[in-house]
UniProtKB/TrEMBL annotation:
Residue ranges the record marks as coiled coil: 3-37
Name of the molecule in the record: DUF5082 family protein
Alphabetic keyword roster: Coiled coil
Organism: Salicibibacter cibarius
InterPro entries named in the record: YwqH-like (IPR031681)
Length: 125
């Protein structure tokens, strides 16, 4: 392979590697933000069930309807977000981080091979 072609391939591999490292940084920042949001959601869960309706605070048909709406319209979707959707998003980001790490490893291996080939090409000339 020609020296010029090897240098071009090295340049391309270095660009791909730099881009993958930037992607990895963004994914790690995203993961950290998701975990922070998950913590915030978990700590606020009990707030949606307040005030608890008792015979002393509010009772009757309207209180029952309110409690039903609160449970089905607020608490259940919130729990789904906090307990299902955010963890799923974290899992997806983790999978993407793994893919990106694998790409980085492959690019480093390819880059090392290209650099070795270039050194051999230079020595032969």
């Amino acid at each position: 392979m020609s020296e010029e072609r090897l240098r071009s391939q090295i340049s391309s591999a270095e660009g791909t590697l730099a881009s993958a490292r930037e992607d990895l940084q963004r994914l790690q920042e995203c993961r950290a933000r998701l975990i922070s949001r998950q913590s915030t959601l978990d700590s606020a869960k009990s707030d949606f069930k307040e005030p608890e309706l008792t015979a002393d605070t509010w009772h009757g048909e309207h209180a029952t309807k309110f409690d039903d709406i609160r449970d089905s319209g607020i608490v259940t979707p919130y729990d789904n977000l906090a307990d299902v959707k955010v963890p799923e998003a974290i899992d997806q980001v983790d999978a993407r981080i793994d893919q990106t790490n694998n790409l980085i490893t492959q690019q480093i291996t390819q880059l090392d091979g290209l650099k070795d080939s270039l050194e051999k090409e230079i020595k032969e000339d």
